[in-house]
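Pasting as-is:
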Amino acid sequence: MKTLLLALIALLAAACGRPAPHAQESYVFGTRVEVLVWGEPGEKARAATAEVLREFDRLHRTYHAWQPSAMTALNEALAAGRAHEVTPEFAGFIREAQAMSARGDHLFDPGLGRLIELWGFHDDSFKAELPDPEKLAALVRAKPSIADLRIDGTKVSGGDTPNTAVALDFGGYLKGVALDRAAAIFKERGIANALINIGGNVMALGSKGGTPWRVGIQHPRQPTPMATLELRDGEAIGTSGDYQRFFEIDGRRYCHLIDPRTGRPSTGAQAVSVLIPAGFDGGKGGHLVRRRQQAAVHRRRRLARPGRTPGHRPRAACRRRRPGRADRRHARAPQARIAAMIGIFLVTHATYGESLIQCACHVLNKRPPRIAQIGIAAQDDPLDALPMAQQLLGLVDSGKGVLIMTDIFGATPANLATKLLKPGRVEGIAGVNLPMLVRALTYRDRDMETLIAKAVAGGRDGVLHMIP
């Protein structure tokens, strides 16, 4: 899956006056890869990052579905109905992918390689061309699935009645494996703070100078972030959408996300992001892979959900965060203070909310916790942006409520904010400016009524005629 999730690290580092991390980019798994390391000497960071990228390249070459590799050798054998010997690593990947696919009712199925090839998405230079209807219908009738494979030790076959339409493609699976390997390598090399981004599949390790890593989620129809959020130690996020690998014919978009039930590209949503909490599976080996695959399953379920039209805006399915290992290492008192805060959620035009947060970072000399923002474009319908806004609202709500701050009353962002209000629980203020935001961040350990009064007063008092 090739998606774009913008890491805003360098920008925020500069805004807060902190040193920039060591950053290195590559192109692996058919997508852009970014690796950032914070707070380590340059030589140490470069050596560890280089090892991570070498492992990414090994995985990419070994399990490439369309260029000569261990994967293509297996697919050739499966097409001929023969059993094939694979490495223990490969066999383990197939078993895990089978289990993951079964948990998602096979809506995310790495056995759909023939369908992906038929649509032309196996090639980076795919054409705007529909597949042959008869071939497509035959593949759909064959119902290829990774579940059709049988594994005996390291021997893989199609069983007693092989389904020769099965071909593996780990494009949506291997990125999770790579993130897991990167985390292990950094741990072995003594790197505690890093951010790994593989085409929109991101994992955070540690923090950047004591504050959480912050990433942006790409708007599927605009070259700007749709929303931003913090990732704490061990948390991960995965994004998939119809806006990176697609073609259009007669005004209709065909993307690389194939619904196995129809054999056709999914049209259920433009983009889906899933936030995965830290500490999943007790820190056992392979836990990130399972987290990543669960995210993939959830995304495919959302993208394949019936009753949606291609014109719908992004839907987000984000899980509420659970404290992970990093949280438990912190002292109890500071953790309790953070949990007691009223959350702040900015709903504004375009990037105004994120700009305010950056400026507040300047003023306070730290990144405030439990704050999020969503930027709304002029042409956006509040109803389309509502699901994403509801999920982000949940991320900043610790149980004490949330104060929504919007800019112009009556404008599109304010209309969206109005739909989120719940008296006494989720309150809203229009006319947000920097003095208002700083005042709100200062008094949000109080009750909601006091916070609203302080914020409104701060915004009003911050506007005055300057006389020389």
